Amino acid sequence: MWHSVDYSSNNAPSVYDIRGFLGGIQQFDETGTLLGAFSPFSFTTLNGVHSGTLIDTLNITVNPSITGVAPPTSINLDNIVLTSTVPEPGTLLLIGGGLVSLGLFRKVRLG
User: Fold this and answer.
1) Predicted TM-score (pTM) of this structure
2) Distance of CA 77 to CAs 60, 61, 81, 83, 87, Å?
3) What percent of the chain is predicted at pLDDT more than 90?
């Protein structure tokens, strides 16, 4: 799942297109404008609208050309935040232990 990305589009805005795919099938398409920052390396966080959507591929495209506007001097992306829904090993052990305990309790109670 994609949550956010930090960006800097120095001196002019840029257009972005962020697409998420699962098994080759597009799950979402977020587009918009990265606002131009006029101080070097001034990063802004862009939060995903579809941050709860499960994906296995993320495609980020940035187009520095906006009609009638001079292009930015640089476009920088940093801190792309993705999360996974895979349970941690400790969680799996707790679930497994709970199921074993329930099974033993039922066996003792019925037996």
Assistant:
1) 0.69
2) 10, 11, 11, 18, 29
3) 18
